Amino acid sequence: MRMQAQDVHSAARSTRPRTRHVSIYCKISNNNNVSRSLESPQPQPAKPARKLASIVLAAAVALSPLVPATDVAASEAVATSSAALELQQAYDKYSASYDELDGGAAADALGFPQLRAQLLAQARGRTLEVAVGTGLNLQYYDWAQPAPAAATEATGGGGEEEAAATAAASSGVTSLDTVDLSPGMLAQARARVRGSPGLAGRPIAFQQADVAALPYADSAFDTVVDTFSLCVFPDPQAAMHELARVVRPASGGGGGGGGRLLLLEHSRSDNPLLAAYQDATAGPVAALGKGCVWNQDVEAMAARAGLVVTRAERFAAGTVELLVAEKPAPPQQ
Fold first, then answer.
1. Which of 116, 122, 166 minimizes the C-alpha distance to 138?
2. Which of 135 and 79 is assigned the larger pLDDT?
3. Hey, what domains does the chain have and what are their CATH numbers?
4. Which residue, 21, 190, 275, 330, has fewest beta-carbon neighbours within 10 Å?
5. Residue 304 pLDDT more than 60?
6. Model pLDDT, residue 222
7. Which of the 8 DSSP states describes residue 317?
8. For the region Disordered, what residue ranges are annotated (predicted)?
9. Burial of 260 (0-12, 13-18, 19+ CB in 10 A)
10. Backbone φ and ψ of 143, nearest 5°
């Protein structure tokens, strides 16, 4: 992966104008080492400053694997478009080696495992994870303790609304539905559960599905999760609308706190110079990273889907964003 990251960086530099160099670290690095070129009198970041660019690019590519490794027999296609079918087939081929590519040194250096844990600790109630892949996130969920029998009897059942409110107000996940377009990736996720004592026996369901057409009713989940997948979806905005559709509204039901959407995604940096760098390198990164578009405005996508962002934190020089969003409650009749 180190050589692949260098290739990405080399391709990225070739796209920049030769007469002007853009410094992407003047606001985010305390390193005062600069250089100048004959073509541009403006100070440029020296090699130490460019190192972080390579790391960030490597992380973007690492989370979108590059080279197919093994063939996996595909099940009945559920893709809703030719682009989605192509994506399914590609992920089937490298599903067996995905973890080696996704869990590389670049991702570890940027603290992505810790960000996954931070995000998923907020999941509660009935939870859906889309693009579950090989199940890298499964170890980070906090599971709710079973309700005492006396408490269950006291509620007398209470109907679906009360049950949903109780689940949403719980301190952890009560059930986990997962979907992925690739049957090969789902096979790896199932194997992970079977081989993990902490996961075996948990209420985890796996289903092959296209995120553009989720097989669930409206407002079906208390928590919906997606990590590092929007950048490769053929139609990320359509996917965001589907995520919004299946999550419960805020403060809905019996006052259990409502649903929430948890996202950890590549996003266009809030640093203007770094954002310009992302824009300039978006083509090479997508070409080498299985179509990963690493300069999307994820907050804007959430807003277009009718969601309200309640928490937003940026990492990796602003190129990775952790978002918590809610669907507004419907107006009272």
1. 116
2. 135
3. 2-326 (3.40.50.150)
4. 330
5. yes
6. 97
7. T
8. 150-169
9. buried
10. -95, 140
